[in-house]
Amino acid sequence: MDFIRETAKAVGFEKPLKEEQLLCLSSVLEGKDIVAILPTGYGKSLIFQLAPQVIMRSRGIPASKSVGLIITPLNSIMLNQIQALHSMGISACSLDYSCSKAQTFEFDRDSDESGDDADCDNQILTTAPISDILEGKYSLIYAHPEALLSCAQGERLLKQLQKSEMIVCIAIDEAHIILEWGAEFRKDFSRIGENLLSRFPDIPVMVFTATAPPKAQQQIIRNLNLRNPQVISINPDRPNIKYSTIMRPPSSQTVEHLEEILIPIMEGLATEKQNYPLTIMYTDTSVISYSYTYLEKNLGNRQYIGDSIPENRIFAQYHQTYTDKMKSFIVQEICKADSRIRFVMSTVALGMGLNALHVRHVIHYKPPTTIERYFQETGRAGRDGEPSYATLYYNNTDIRSNRPGIDKAIVKYCKNTSSCKRAVMLECFGFQPIQGNQNCCDFCDSNHGQEASSV
């Protein structure tokens, strides 16, 4: 364990490693597969980012022969992490969908900042040839499963990586996506085990997610064909997040209800500016479009911090049709402690792997279809440990039994008015609330902080 701690410090990870992080890395050194079920904000990505460094130093092999392959679902995750790694001096890149080139970051030579003072603000996104990967120039290779499994170039690269023996560990990040997306949407997620991991039978596989009930854990293990993996998990309860549910009017009255919600948000943005609590509202594209237009029209020049340019707007929209450049700007901005963006209206495209520590409030204007997704998305609030809030608006249409993909657990959570909401959620994952929480949920508030009822 001391060797792992020393390696982490040597490569620039300054925060002390937690017990579960050390346990994961120790298991990887022993060549074991692991399934790590750790809460949002716990530091799962640090584990797979450190793994190639730990393996390299323990075996005394060159960096070009100690490379980690990271399978992850969203560009925003890849680019955000690669940029942060580059600022620490750790080389990383991501593959595009065609597997014809890689993306990485380099410091802007025209910037005044350099050396030890350089950070993410003076880096520029650049492309690199696939040959750089095969020469071992990157410690970490990020990729979508489609890049490696659905095109001839990806197939060829996999064969070359297999032959080169440079891959020393493989990580599957946000592994719950295998179950959520693998059946119908992005089917290559369901092929990772059979078509990718099978090529590297002696390489330790690290599987990460923040939420996986026991049944889901076994499904993931079977799907990936893991070899007697060590399951490492802790109670996913986030005591600093307070949960509330609010019944919203029928969908025919959505516009009127949205305005009721947006008016206090708008007034807060206008008066508090950069001091307004950073808030993410998850909803669908029609609500995003209406809400964005409403704020833009009613705030006028008050929607900016500083000059009236788009980059200074205090609210933003984030969805699939936005360009990668625009989405990257939003992600980079809200990851800052002093972000100019204070309110983001988004689809689920924003979130997984997002290292935004200072989100104070997560609003859902319509529940997701599963309790796992809801727990994941609310977990983006309060990653710095400060008091934060999760508010869910729903109506009967949102939780109808014939809504595609809806599960009973999220319906139970929405309808529950007789017991602690936190307890109802955690029961799905086989845990109970951490005792002594004074900022639990709206049910506990109305019952004068009584202990969580049995559920």
Structure, described:
Helix content is 37%, strand content 17%. With 455 residues, it is of the alpha/beta class. The protein folds into 2 domains: 2-233, 3-Layer(aba) Sandwich (Rossmann fold); 241-446, Rossmann fold (3-Layer(aba) Sandwich), CATH 3.40.50. The strands form 2 sheets. A 9-stranded mixed sheet has the order 5-4-3-6-2-7-8-1-9, with helices on both faces. α13 (324-334) links the parallel β12 and β13. α1 (2-10) packs across α3 and α4 packs across α13 (324-334). It is globular.
Q: What are the key terms here?
A:
455 residues, alpha/beta, Rossmann fold, 17 helices, 15 strands, globular, disordered C terminus
For the residues shown, what is the average pLDDT?
90
Count of helix runs: 17
Helix coverage percent: 25-40%
CATH architecture of the largest domain: 3-Layer(aba) Sandwich
Radius of gyration: 22 Å
Question: TL;DR of this structure?
Answer:
The chain is of the alpha/beta class and 455 residues long. The protein has helices at 2-10, 19-29, 44-59, 75-88, 130-134, 145-149, 152-164, 177-181, 192-196, 214-224, 254-272, 285-299, 324-334, 371-378, 408-415, 421-427, 442-446, and strands spanning 34-37, 67-71, 92-95, 101-107, 123-129, 140-143, 167-172, 205-209, 230-233, 241-247, 279-282, 315-318, 343-346, 361-365, 388-394. The protein is 37% helix and 17% strand.
